[in-house]
Structures are given as structure tokens and as C-alpha cells.
Amino acid sequence: MSAAAMGSPGRRIWAMVYRHLCLYRGSWPRALELMYWPVLQMLIWAFVTRYTGQFQGALAIAAGSLIGAVLLWETALRSQMGFTISFLEELWSRNLGNLFVSPIRPWELVASLMVMSIARAAIGVGTAALLAWLMAAFDITSLGLPLVPFLLNLMVFGWAIALMVTAMILRHGAGAESLAWSVLFGLAPLSAVFYPVSVLPAWLQPVALALPTTHVFEGMRAVLAGSVFPAGHLAWAFGLNLLFMGAAVWIFIAIFGVARRRGLLLTVGE
Amino acid sequence: MIEAIRVEGLVKRYPGLGGKDVLAVDGIDFTVPRGQTVALLGGNGAGKTTTIAMLLGLLLPTAGRISCLGHDMAHDRFAALARMNFSSPYVALPHRLTVAQNFRVYGHLYGVPRIDRRIAELAEAFDLKALLDRKSGELSAGQKTRVALAKALVNRPELLLLDEPTASLDPDTADQLRGWLERYRAETGASILLASHNMAEVERLCSDVLMMKQGRIVDRGPPGALIAKYGRLNLEEVFLDIARGTGEARRLAAE
Q: Does residue B110 share a domain with residue B35?
């Protein structure tokens, strides 16, 4: 059987996942970095929660939702960074020239980045969730069944942002690298992560509600406050994610085309 | 038999400053027959890298048609890419991965059956056994070039595109590498397109030469025929004549 006949999308995706697993196996600082920031965040917020937990009333209730908010926000953040940093690893090692002339299709490369994003987020957020349980007695699974769609929506939104950032890196090269660390952070104030959307100025609330993340955090607070399944918020989150992901795919395909017309794939690491 | 490469009317124009386009490749036509090694020569900026990038699908042509191994690169490039490979000192393998891990990654990408057996064959052929468990980033320039070439053969390509395959190699290693390329072509019937600035290498390896200047193919033919045509002693002198527009090249241009 010819080599070409043995190729399959699954095998090519696995090739890229295997490449990253080898990288983490051979570099303990990279492996440590997967947990470092989520654990650091959790330590800070767990101590804040201990402090505010001494008080009665609304402050004590709000403190409880902080830990859940940190864990869910880290899910979005880690899924976006896991995707983008895995792509940047190829750029840093000047390997893109080899990859783009191999039979791997762009969608297969994207799929492998998503797999790595799930793995990285699971390690980082999983460790932070364990710490939340040990330090603040917060069990993330207490969110119940809505936890699954919450996490799914946050990851999909992280990927949509990551796809747009990757497109910008293809278009503008290493100069756009900093977007990998900054874009989603910039959306945190609008996503109403630690406070209800009603706290925002009236004119800013429609902007916030146009983000799927805002609906996830509103839904989370509703669940922690004892409400029923937040179907409305989840429907909005899924719908908006569909729009964001559609836009991200369109931008990525358009910029990949620009990169092939202008020869940017040859110089992307420079 | 279908040629390994067929290029017709290939043009690449980049948008330049002030709305003035830069013409990098200006309507070239050529073929690379099956089982032959052909050189693409020219000075810096002649259009060699742009042409190779278009052959590999990294760059979209402004006009023209490229077919590799019978596949139209505009519509069916992945079928061709699975049967091709490429090596250049200007791209690298992930330096934190060991040589064996890198071979395994590319073996999976190219759908190579029985990868470990193929890695053992490459290690034997390229004298890499002692390097398999070393990280690619820890290798010397010469070792990296050998590893890059071995990676380019991981899928037993029917068409191999090489950009400066012996750049930064000492004469002994470069000579060995040329020997490997000759043997690979003879044993597998593969076709090779080679861009090089080493004229002795081109004389040794190539049956045909395409001379590029300012985006056009200004001459072509077997190395011996070109040397005779220009009345020179070797291909390097022919290259200089064409690059500088001196000697026979000046007379031909005037005609």
C-alpha cells in the first residue's frame, strides 16, 4: 500500500497531538506552566473567599460565586491560550514551512490545536478545581448539569477568539504574538465574570450581552443562587457562539488565502 | 508518461509600494521529467524560491498552471503533497523533539506504514543511529541538514524539492549527501528539483539546468551543453556570464 493511501485525517491530527505531547514530556517548565497561572489565580481568590466568608449577608454569598467564576473564566482563557500557544510553538520552532507543505489540511491543523487546547485546559483548570475544593470547599460539580454546557460554551468561545488571533499572527507575523495573551483578558470586564451584568452602565449592558461568556456567568450565578436550569442564558450563549465561531472561521479562511497570495506563509516566523 | 512537474505560463506578481507591482516570476514554462534531477539556478532575487513556493502550494500564482505528479496544484494539491517532500535549511524541525520523535511526527503526517522500520532505514542510510534520541536543537548544522534530508525522504517521495541542500555543510558531509541523493534517485526513480548555488553540485547531480534571471528562464539545457554553448570551463562561469550579462550571455541577449 502506498504511503499516501495510508494517510487519514485522524492520523494527521494525531501526528500533531503527538508532537505536542513529546514537547511537554521533554520540557518540565512547559508542563509546569500549564498549571501555574490557574493555581495562582485560585490561591488568590480562595484567600479572598476565606476573608469575605467571615462576613454575613450578600458579601458572603458573592464570595461563594467568585470561586466558580474563577474556574469558569480560566476554562475560557486556557482553551484560547492552549490553542494559540500550540500554534505559536510551530512558529517559534520555524516548523510551519514543513507543516504547510505536508498533506495536513488547515482544518486538521485547527482540530489538533483544539485537542491540545482541551488537554491543556483540563490539566490547568482540573488542578485549580481540586485546589478550590481543598482550600475553599467549593465543588465545581455542585453546579450540576448546567456545568457541561457552561464549559462547552466557554471552550468554543475560547477557540473562536484563538482562531481570530491565529489569523492575525498569520497576517502580521510574530508582531501579533502578544494578542495570544491579551485579547480574552480584554473581554473579561464585559463578560461580567465576577459581578452581575446589571452592575455595568446601561449603555454597556447590550455590548456585554452580545458575548456568550456573559450569559454563561449570568447563568452560573443563577444556578448558585438556587434558580432552575438557566435555559434562556444557555440558548443565548450557544446562539452567540455560533455567530462568533462562524465569523472566526470566515476570518481564518480569508486570511489564510491572503497569506497564500502574499507569500506570508514563507515569512510568518520572521 | 506524465512529467513529475509541468509548469505553464507561471506568473507571480506581488503588490509593491506606491501601487507598483513587483514581478517576481514572469511567465515561465518548464517540465521536470520522471526520474531526473533538474536544477533551478539564478542569483538572489531571480525567482527561484518564489517558484518553489508555488510548486509546494505555499504561494498562489497570479497566473499560470502547475501540475505535480499529474495533480493540478490549484485544486488537488494535498494528493500531490502526500507523494512529495521538501527540504530547506531555512525551515527547521521542532528543536525540543528528538530526531526519532520528529521522524515519527512526519511519518504520521505522511501516512507512512510501519514508521519504526522506516526510521531504522533512514537512520542506517544517513548514519543517524547515534542521533535518534538527541533533541534536534542540540545538533550541529551539518547533523541538522542530514536529519532534514532524512525527514524529506520519510514518505519515500516520488518528487523531492530541495532548496540549498548542502548549504552550511563541510565538503565531506556535502559529498556524502550528494551520494545519498544519487542513490535515492537511482533506486526509486524519483524526480528531484534542486535549487543550489553550488555549481559543482549541480554539474554532478543534474541532467538539466534551468537558468533564471529577473523572474524569467533565460536559458536551459544539460550542464555540459550549456558549458559548451557559453564556451566556458564549468557551470560557475556560465552562471556568472548570465548573472552579469557578460560573454556569450551578452551576445545572446543582443540577438
A: no
* B120 and B14 within one domain: no
**How far apart are the C-alpha atoms of A15 and B140, rounded to whole Å?**
26
**CB < 8 Å to B110, chain A:** 3-4, 7, 102-103
Is there a single domain that holds both residue B168 and residue B111? no
Q: Which residues of A touch B111 (CB under 8 A)?
A: 3-8, 11-12, 103
What is the Cα–Cα distance from A1 to A3, expressed in whole angstroms?
Answer: 7
A15·B14 Cβ contact <8 A: no
For residue A6, what pLDDT band results from cuts at 50, 70 and 90? low
Which parts of chain B register pLDDT below 50?
A: none
The three cell numbers of residue A107 are 482544518
Q: What is the number of CB-based contacts under 8 A between chain A and chain B? A: 130
- Report the complex ipTM: 0.89
The pLDDT confidence band at residue A248, using thresholds 50, 70 and 90, is: very high
**B196 in the same domain as B79:** yes
Q: Do A95 and A269 touch, CB atoms closer than 8 A?
A: no
Are residues B67 and B168 both part of a single domain? Answer: yes
- Flag whether residue A3 sits within 8 Å of chain B, measured between CB atoms: yes
Neighbours of A254 (CB within 10 A): 12
pTM, two decimal places: 0.90
In which domain, by residue range, is B96 found? 90-156
Whether A263 has its CB under 8 Å from any CB of chain B: the answer is: yes
Cβ neighbours, 10 Å, residue B15 = 10
The answer as to whether B179 is a domain residue is no
Determine contact, residues A179/A87, Cβ cutoff 8 Å: no
Contact A266 B151 (CB under 8 A): no
SS3 content of chain A, % helix, strand, coil (to 5): 80, 0, 20
Q: Are residues B152 and B193 in the same domain?
A: no
Q: Which of residues 107-126 of A touch B (CB under 8 A)?
A: none
Distance (Å, whole) CA A219 – CA A232: 9
